[in-house]
Give the backbone structure.
Amino acid sequence: MGEWFKSVTATAAGRLLGWLIVSAITTTGLGLSLASSWQYLRAAPLPVIALSLAGVLLSALFLTFFAWAFLGTQIHDGTYGSKYLLWYKLPLRKVSWGFEQFLGGGSGQGQPVLVYAFQPRLKVNWGDGIHPKRAFIECKSTGAHLNVLLSPLDAYVNAEAVDFIPKGSWFQCQAHFGGITKEVFLQNWGGFDFVFEYDNGKCFSRRFSRTELEECIDRFWRYSNRRLSPKGRLKSG
């Protein structure tokens, strides 16, 4: 502990102390405010209590809607996954997943999107690493099934062929669709489950809904067909 304090600069220590003081004051003030409000409401007439509860409910609904709308937007320009997918990237579990560009496709000005691959990334956060067992996507409504290939070296192989993935680096995964249109893709894969099994009985799974997939493809199309900034031209001759 002593060595840790020695490694902390005076500026960092001052910021930490300031943050703790502000947090303590804010928490204390909020607690006193809530206690006072509760005492007031206990003695208030019934209409005042009803209006107060309605205000709290409307505020909660507004915050929920705002959070839902914000998390449903794309991560940043040029990516097609939504912000809520960043949850899987946090190092809160042994294996993190990058779903920012979970669908790979191609398009151009005025051209339809062709969906080529499901392409998440994985990263082992702690321990020496993991031993993959199986990785696949499956659409239960159509019976479609594809193995998700891993790339521990320079080539993509089935998870069963990978002995070990070390911690600390991002590794690409892919399941190839072959370049199909949005309509064909949704007909065959309109809502699928991604399953990744590793070590002894450990498993990660996530369902990608039809709405989520369609939204991703539409974002890709809008980005590929966005209006480009006008360019100047040189004088002839």
